[in-house]
Amino acid sequence: MRIFSGVKPTGHPTLGNLLGAMQRWARIDQFRSDDPGDALFCVVDLHALTVPHEPAALRERTREVATLLLATGLDPERCTVFCQSHVAAHTRLTWIMESVVGDGELRRMVQYKEKSARQESVSTALLTYPALMAADILAYGAEEVPVGDDQRQHVELARDLAVRFNTRYGEVFPVPRAVRPPAGARVMNLQVPTDKMGKSDDTAVQGIIYLLDPPDSARRKVMRAVTDGGREVVYDPEAKPGVANLLDILSACGDGTEPAELATRYASYGALKSDVADAVVAVLEPLQARYREFADDPATIDKILRAGADRASALADPYVSAAYDAIGLLPPR
Ligand code: AQP
Question: For 218-246, what is the mean pLDDT?
């Protein structure tokens, strides 16, 4: 079974990225086989070009995200950690994916609608982003894609494209499926609990916990989280999105006890917030300590990314060659 997932260096990674995806990737890595080619985790830097960006900031964020991936506990001996732009297979396969996806399908993607509505001028790359994401997944023949809820629609499209390609041109790609975490699949902004906690969101930043926030600041953000009317602690995401978000965070940071079960343990919002703050700080502190160790050793990060890209290329090239062949492109002789 092969697993692939990625994170965009579009901002400082957040608690949402950790609980919805990165923390889970590190656990998968610990429990799986010893073949490092079975699980691939990628800094998807090409995806960061779909929105306006500063080149110097992109380079910095790419390094930060790669370092954080290792700090979560991903072991480069047991999985493959690399940068998307270092592996040519992603862009080579994107063109093939663009030839099988309809423009209507791309325009229907929720993330495209939301992000294009916020921008004055929209790049073609923002529209074709899901074709690149399908290529990211299919280039490795990945079967499982562990993601947060916001990426499920894109994985569904990758699934459709795999089936369509295989039906039209012959079996090349395994059909992937999205895998969601049991808790923390959609961490919401602490100030606007109806909005996702997003790393590229520059509004309501007091509601976003960044993974490298000083613990005191993270604690303050939790204690100031918007809660809902009434006083009763119940898990009701519709009627009480603020409280439900805190319970989800507590569940994902802790031992996975169901949020509804956790709710029964609290008689006040204050006690709940205080436990959520403790739980968040308990997750962030060791992560930040490991981050600092890796950040002090950039040569090791470079070496890990280089080895990861070499391994990833070797795994992807046969799928890309098979797709080029199946679709009728003459192989070089
Ligand atoms: N709030 C979240 N809750 C749970 N999971 C989340 N993820 C992202 N936000 C949350 C998951 O983290 C993985 C990497 O995310 P990404 O880098 O692809 O996307 P992002 O952080 O959503 O990216 P942006 O650029 O910052 O966009 P916005 O501003 O829309 O948030 C994915 O598995 C994702 O599901």
Answer: 94
Place of tokens 């009317």: 229
Please state, in angstroms and as integers, the Cα–Cα distance from residue 12 to each residue in 64, 95, 139, following that order. 8, 30, 27
CATH superfamily of 3-181+297-327: HUPs (3.40.50.620)
Q: Give the binding-site residues of ligand 1, using a 6 Å CB cut-off.
A: 7-8, 10-11, 16-17, 19-21, 147-148, 150-151, 184-187, 196-201
Q: Which of 5, 7, 17 to mutate to test the pocket of ligand 1 (most atoms within 8 A of CB)?
A: 17
* CA 9 – ligand 1 centroid, Å: 10
Q: What is the pLDDT of residue 192?
A: 96
Q: Rounded to two decimals, what is the model's pTM?
A: 0.95
CA of 283 from ligand 1 middle (Å) equals: 18
The angle, 0 to 180 degrees and rounded to 10, between the axes of the packed helices 152-169 and 124-138 is: 70
Enumerate the CATH 3.40.50.620 domain ranges in the chain, comma separated: 3-181+297-327
Closest ligand 1 atom to 184 CA: 4
CATH number assigned to the domain with residue range 205-292, chosen from the 4 options 1.10.240.10, 3.40.50.720, 3.90.550.10, 3.20.20.70: 1.10.240.10
113 is catalytic: no
CB 201 within 8 A of CB 213: no
Q: What pLDDT is stored for residue 28 in this prediction? A: 81
Q: Going by C-beta distance under 8 Å and a sequence separation of 6 or more, which residues neighbour residue 160?
A: 105
**Dist CA 210 CA 13 (whole Å):** 6
pLDDT of residue 80: 96
| Residues tagged in the binding site annotation | 8-10, 16-17, 136, 148-150, 187, 196-200
Residue of 151, 201, 202 to test ligand 1 pocket, by largest number of atoms within 8 Å of CB: 151
pLDDT at 31: 66
pLDDT band at 252 (very low <50, low <70, confident <90, very high): very high
**Predicted pLDDT at 37:** 77
| Average pLDDT of span 44-62 | 96
